[in-house]
Amino acid sequence: MRFIEPHIHMVSRTTDDYQAMALAGIRTVSEPAFWAGFDRGSAQGFRDYFNQLTMTERARAALYGVKHHCWICLNPKEAEDLTLAREVLAIIPEFLDRPSVLGIGEIGLNKNSRNELTVLEEHLALAEQRGELVLVHTPHLEDKLKGTRLIIDAIRNFKGITPDRVLIDHAEEHTAGVIRDAGFWLGLTLYPTSKCSPARAIDLLETHGTDRVWLNSAADWGISDPLATVKASEEMRRRGHPEALIEKVFFDNPRAFLSQSPKFSV
Amino acid sequence: MVQSTCPQLATDILDRSFLENRARLLEVAAFLDRIDRSREPEAGRADFRYRACQDALQLLASASGERAKALQLLLSDHSPEPRVSAKGLKGAAGAWKERR
Question: Does A111 sit within 8 Å of B89, measured CB to CB?
Answer without folding.
Answer: yes
